[in-house]
Write a structure and sequence with these properties.
The chain is mainly α. It has 4 helices and no strands. The longest helix is centred in the first third of the chain and has 26 residues, at about 5-30.
Length: about 100
C-alpha cells in the first residue's frame, strides 16, 4: 500500500471512528461522555482508567479470537472491533486529561 492510499485509509477510519464515538456517546452517556466509566469505577472500586482498560482488554481478546478463527463473525466485524478499540483508547486518553484539568 502506497503512502497516499495509507493516508486515505487512515482518514476514512478516523471519520468512522468519530462517527461511532459520537453516536454511541449519544446513546450511552449524558453531557459528560465519561460519566459511565466514572460510575462503574465507583461501583467496582476501580479507577475510571482501569474500567476502560477492562473494555480494551475485552476488545483485544475478541479481536484475537476473530482473527485466529478465520471465520466471518455473525455480529461485529473485525473492523467494528478495531474501531471500538481505537475509541476506547481515545476515551482512556480523555479520562486521563479530565483528571489533569480538575
Amino acid at each position: 500500500m502506497k503512502l497516499q492510499e495509507q493516508i486515505q485509509e487512515f482518514n476514512e477510519f478516523a471519520e468512522k471512528q468519530a462517527d461511532i464515538m459520537l453516536k454511541k456517546g449519544n446513546d450511552y452517556a449524558n453531557e459528560d461522555r465519561l460519566s459511565n466509566f466514572k460510575l462503574v469505577a465507583q461501583i467496582t472500586g476501580l479507577t475510571p482508567e482501569q474500567v476502560i482498560m477492562v473494555f480494551i482488554a475485552t476488545k483485544t481478546v475478541r479481536l484475537g479470537n476473530l482473527i485466529a478463527s478465520g471465520k466471518a463473525p455473525n455480529n461485529e466485524s473485525i473492523e467494528d472491533n478495531l474501531l471500538d478499540s481505537s475509541n476506547y483508547n481515545q476515551l482512556l486518553n480523555m479520562i486521563r486529561n479530565d483528571k489533569t484539568t480538575k
